[in-house]
């Protein structure tokens, strides 16, 4: 009886905010494109590498809504298929980073002492180099490619989760209900699993939602610098990077993939904001 | 009467880390406490905020590391026991927190919260409804979350959770201070009944003297990490010896208002005054109170201990 | 300065040193996992085998890795960042040349971020849930979601190519001589030397990249500031200030903002650190001759010494920024100042 | 004696997702100039909301005034425009709060906060705003008048450097900045230790006496109210259930809730009397019980109590009670 | 732009000039500035490229091809006024050989520093270790530096390397005014240049600015707005747009830079000549032309068309799927089903697109292509060994001289592992012919050998012989004196004869 109330509250909070609604719509659209992409695109062949040089650099038309690129690929097709890649990569990076960072962070916050000191110093080290520069160095070293870009970004992303999980664990550790569990004789692992983790979930979910957006942006950035996906993989950032050479005459080439990056990242960030409103007990006030 | 719980010279010092603008310092939250709780007894611990009541309670339950002194429980020294060795003992000593809202995991239902200790110790879960009934909660509450309960109900759940392991000792850290008087009376009734039925021992912390007098047969008064007076509650609260105890009693608001005895406010425990820690606020302070070490807790009459230079033999007998 | 603060600073600096060392190790490891042969790069495209071998010796690349590492650390200790493999130039000299341009860009962007972000945040919080608030919130999220490189291209398309109001890229036009350096920051130097036309021209070049660079930063500041202001305006002491009859203006701008500025300051510090790395994208788009562009072009060429150098500089900058933020926190928050 | 403040049929609701909570449900009470009135009631019964209503401090939304009047010196506060309300705050009606630690701005010095309050009062009075220096001098004297030693040093300090009692005194001094007529004290001692509580209560009593203030003191501690006020209003779930002189109420409460409340307080001096709790707990204000809001917990409740809301009637001279069954 | 009474021409390209030292390194942008600041003994001009006397008025060759004697112009002087004498020439060649970087590879196997003799102030004699016919074709790239200046700025015996990075010590038509290798280089015309000016003193420029604009869009915009007068690095797709601009003209010339896709002939599937042939016949050569909007010509031999000795090899593969399938069926992979790696230099647009075209073409053979962009260094170090070399690598090669040996030698055993030797071409008979040809002094016999070499190489198909892309510049119509010479690198122009009209 009570869960429905929470659900109703969640729906109320989400629908009340235009921003959250926009976020949900955008994310749903991107998810839909990612799922249905191969079925709905007009020129599936253009993703596998088929080229059509006779039709290169066409302006938007009925046959090619977003125009064509420098080897005659339909830009709409590639942008839609790009959603799939970006989404996979964004979610992959976020999940992997969280899978590394959260256990470490909770361990640090719960155990404290030298273990925490060591973990946090390592985290600080990674956090002190702003991610993009480190990622560039890494990708340049490992060689470009979507997998290497992911590895690099996971490497620069996990410390954020350590920080969050650690601070959450620290604050939860001080909660009387943790003490109550200790009084009841609960071993550390049980406390971690049953109390600390579930109670740190809300901010983690919020962060992960936003991070999917940020990871998409980061991959696109690497792609833009020529360090992302390899051709013929349709990747938004790489498309803009190439399209840049065709500005200003063929402006649509750069505009569409960018608009999709923007929409995707915006969607996930707004969704994160909306989730925060739902999950943050403070917002229940009014 | 055998001692269920005994502490000798128990001390806890907290060190604070240095930051950009603050030097490292240490706070003697508990500074040498001797204490004895007999089997089946109820000892009240009173004192102003920050005097170390909660810290003492957690020390006794081995929830914070001990800086100095010894603790024995059921006649066994538990000061240096490892957490794993302590775990079986935990069944017999339980804690009730001040704020029942914070003491319950917000994600667990009442049933899950109360069942948690049973699960940990691999006990039979079927006693759950019985437990709730014992603390006066209807069975329909089992599937509620804490935020759907009133303060008094939450505190009952906490008590049920503590009782689940059938403890002998219950440490209650201001169990009613977050509750309304009408609810407080309900909880006190419950606690009194439980003690009578189960023969529990209470270490009952409160700053409300009237409540302590209701619940406890003995009272210890704490000031700045030390016990300054201890004895049977009727005696200590009826005829206080230590100037601080007197000040406390005089401050309790009553119709028509009494005289103010204590000046000033509790000093910062990080920089306690020399000599008797109470001397800056004591209306009777003399030269000898201002210097030297803190007066020791002495037995001034049978079962009555006071730490004050000014309380001498003349009161004895 | 009291002893406590000195000790604290010493500890922090020691810690920063340790981190810097960690960073050096990290970059060194990264630069050596690359499968490329730096010596081939050093020797040039048409070089024969003997020349490659000579380059290898010359750059010490024939030495075992631990020795190379020790050498690198030793050089760094003397302020030497090593030589770029691709160009043979000293990385330290190059960094010195490009850093001011990046700093200038970052400083201007940060100014925009703070001067626009903070007031907008306050406005949005005060008019919470009103139309202005909604617009500002979407604007703020946009700042974080907008790919800087794309935004830069759009601005170029609009203001440089389309309207022709502003130049597309670079730092100054071809014929304009930059003022003789005093601070290295061109705009400041132009003012100091009284070269107002250079200043104006420099401004027209820097404004687009600065806007692009400032957008995410502005957005973060706005978000944090708004959030904190909303929280603060709910705080009990604000209720009290109202009850005491403090004027609304003063209540918002002093009583509330002072509190909200603390977390805002933290985000400013953080963003300053990130900004240095965003320059990688912005400088690429606007051909801004700073360390970001330097890093990217070197990375793409497989030339790691410059990348390592830039990484170290960016990391150092980040550490300094967080130290300054911590100290400022102490200044602004009396609770941290003493017991 | 004339009525300084008259509250009539005041209803206020808080709107939220779950519906509208009738937090104040027809409050009726009067404070005579120069008198001391205490308000008691369980947590959540609307005491603070009522106090904040007097200064227009309830955030709206979610707060919504449904009906009623609050007349202060003859003017209805509920219809005042914001500027007029600001002019009243602190100058005619001042307020002190429960937790002194959270009601002082942690990052501003005491001097700044006091100066702003004083200058704010000047601005509200419409006269010349005095210079900071003059404001500081005034702050200095105010601190002295609440019995704080060494005001100069105090002014230079920040809230965290003060003890709880000192903070509450500073807040009291700030409340006095506009030389108000009515002082609303919302649980001013709840966060303090008993010893300090006694000191602060003594200070308030002294100020009321010396300055001829009218006091409205809110607390859930009957002892505190009894020690400081001549008259007590008992509130339950947003309604006034009893209004009586202190001694009369304590000795002979008429409303079953007031009786229960008094019986629940343990008495230090009479430990032999076991306090008795009131069964049940306060109702949700989202769907308050019909009729008398207390009836679900009342052992004397009848069908009438559930159906009909009892009016607050003057049962004895100077004593009003809202109960169908109350008899003198 | 103007500088006082004289005009200044602004040239814009994408490539920085990190090091100016003519003995340290070269690439198109660097050499363009070097060519302006320094003079060589000889100079390449025109199309087809001719070698003309420059600092050397003439030279003699001994019949055995071992001794070359150069006679210097009398009036040549460095920018500081000191004469360009035989000692300066000797010093410069010695410096380049000692530094063993940049251009040194061209001569170092044949020329030892002690064999360079300043016979008198105006005569220098070089004695080679062995006969080396291409010698003269390399000499134009050996610039003469001012020994006094170099020595004055020498630190720790570095031969002035540090100083020369950003300073000029030449006798060329221009001298440095401002050097910021990553942004802008400002050259002033050297007053009273010893060689005089072809357009006359009247019309000559006041100077030249080389401005680096990395992206093509802003570069084009700058040309459109007359901020710059001439730009390079434009894509074939830009031509149409630019041509339509009033007052803008295009220079579009067949170049010298060959594009090929090198197979790894030693390891992996491509070690099989049948597979190589299959791929070569499957490849859609027309796409090379389409990608370049027609501004390219297909190669008909391993040698570029304007190189001496070039022949059209008759059976050079063109797209022919039937033949491709036939070769495939003879290979170890008659049904395809393999994936081949195609590596190109990261960031280069054309090879990436050609990769896409290759990918598209090979789908017909059921062969998939993994297109990988890698930094130059990585690519080169991978290519240095057969077991790490990619299956296919796209390589541009610009011969630095007009002598056929320059290209032929790429197929010699000695070139294995170098970037143009990534195919590790293994045919001892061809190697022998190459060695013979470079020592041969009789031109006719040499050319006959080279014709045979070209045929044999095509037979072995160590690479897909691609195309020679046209070189493109776009300039305002008032820019005059542009003289194309294919022997220069991609964007490089000879600034000396240029001027601005009106
Ligand atoms: N974890 C800790 N770290 C540092 N100091 C602490 C810590 N816990 C308690 N203290 C200090 O120890 C002293 C005693 O604290 P404690 O909580 O035991 O007091 P208390 O008597 O329970 O007060 P209250 O009535 O407010 O609950 C206080 O001065 C407090 O600041
Ligand atoms: N800003 C608000 N928004 C929504 N509901 C509120 C708000 N402020 C108070 N309430 C509700 O109004 C009711 C009365 O609150 P109030 O603070 O007046 O109680 P109180 O009698 O002062 O209690 P306490 O003794 O705990 O201070 C409560 O149910 C509370 O939840
Ligand atoms: Mg406590
Ligand atoms: Mg209240």
Automatic annotation (TrEMBL), chain A:
Predominant cellular place of this UniProt entry's protein: membrane
Coiled-coil regions, chain positions: none
Membrane-crossing segments per the record: 21-41, 87-113, 125-158, 212-229, 250-271
Subcellular location: Cell membrane
Residue intervals of the ABC transmembrane type-1 domain: 83-272
Keywords on record: Cell membrane, Membrane, Peptide transport, Protein transport, Transmembrane, Transmembrane helix, Transport
Pfam short name (any one): BPD_transp_1
Origin superkingdom: Bacteria
Keyword RNA-binding: no
Gene3D superfamilies per the UniProt record, alphabetical: MetI-like (1.10.3720.10)
GO biological process: peptide transport; protein transport; transmembrane transport
InterPro entries per record: BP-dependent_transpt_permease (IPR050366), MetI-like (IPR000515), MetI-like_sf (IPR035906)
Cellular component GO terms held in the UniProt record: plasma membrane
Membrane topology: Multi-pass membrane protein
Keyword Methyltransferase belongs to the record: no
Family matches, as CDD domains: TM_PBP2
Family: Belongs to the binding-protein-dependent transport system permease family.
Protein name: Peptide/nickel transport system permease protein
Automatic annotation (TrEMBL), chain B:
Keyword Ribonucleoprotein (UniProt): no
GO cellular component, one term: plasma membrane
UniProt topology in membrane: Peripheral membrane protein
Signal peptide coordinates: none
One Pfam family of this chain: oligo_HPY
Location of the ABC transporter domain: 5-249
Keyword terms: ATP-binding, Nucleotide-binding, Transport
Gene3D superfamilies assigned: P-loop containing nucleotide triphosphate hydrolases (3.40.50.300)
Subcellular location: Cell inner membrane
An MF annotation (GO) of this entry: ATP hydrolysis activity
Major localisation: membrane
BP GO annotations: peptide transport; transmembrane transport
Highest taxon above the source species: Bacteria
NCBIfam families to which the protein is assigned, alphabetical: oligo_HPY (TIGR01727)
Protein family according to the UniProt entry: Belongs to the ABC transporter superfamily.
Protein name, UniProt field: Peptide/nickel transport system ATP-binding protein
Organism ancestry: Bacteria, Pseudomonadati, Pseudomonadota, Alphaproteobacteria, Acetobacterales
TrEMBL record, chain C:
Membrane-topology annotation of the record: Multi-pass membrane protein
Primary location: membrane
Compartment list: Cell membrane
One GO location term (cellular component): plasma membrane
Pfam families noted in UniProt: BPD_transp_1, BPD_transp_1_N
Organism superkingdom: Bacteria
GO molecular-function term, one example from the UniProt record: dipeptide transmembrane transporter activity
InterPro entries, per database record: BPD_transp_1_N, MetI-like, MetI-like_sf
Chain segments annotated as transmembrane: 12-31, 107-127, 139-166, 202-224, 307-332
UniProt cross-references to PROSITE patterns, sorted A to Z: ABC_TM1
Alphabetical keyword list: Cell membrane, Membrane, Transmembrane, Transmembrane helix, Transport
Occurrences of domain ABC transmembrane type-1 (ranges): 99-329
CDD domains: TM_PBP2 (cd06261)
Protein family (similarity comment): Belongs to the binding-protein-dependent transport system permease family.
Name this protein carries in UniProt: Peptide/nickel transport system permease protein
Source organism of this protein record: Humitalea rosea
Lineage: Bacteria, Pseudomonadati, Pseudomonadota, Alphaproteobacteria, Acetobacterales
From TrEMBL, chain D:
GO BP annotations, alphabetical order: peptide transport; transmembrane transport
Gene Ontology molecular function terms on file: ATP binding; ATP hydrolysis activity
Top-level division of the source organism's lineage: Bacteria
Keywords: ATP-binding, Cell membrane, Membrane, Nucleotide-binding, Transport
Cellular component, GO, one term: plasma membrane
InterPro entries, per database record: AAA+_ATPase, ABC_Ni/Peptide_Import, ABC_transporter-like_ATP-bd, ABC_transporter-like_CS, Oligopep_ABC_C, P-loop_NTPase
Residue stretches making up the ABC transporter domain: 5-262
Coiled-coil boundaries: none
Topology versus the membrane: Peripheral membrane protein
Predominant location category: membrane
Localisation per UniProt entry: Cell inner membrane
Entry-linked NCBIfam families: oligo_HPY
PANTHER family assigned to the protein according to its UniProt record, in alphabetical order: DIPEPTIDE TRANSPORT ATP-BINDING PROTEIN DPPD, OLIGOPEPTIDE TRANSPORT ATP-BINDING PROTEIN APPD
Family per record: Belongs to the ABC transporter superfamily.
Protein name: Peptide/nickel transport system ATP-binding protein/oligopeptide transport system ATP-binding protein
Lineage: Bacteria, Pseudomonadati, Pseudomonadota, Alphaproteobacteria, Acetobacterales
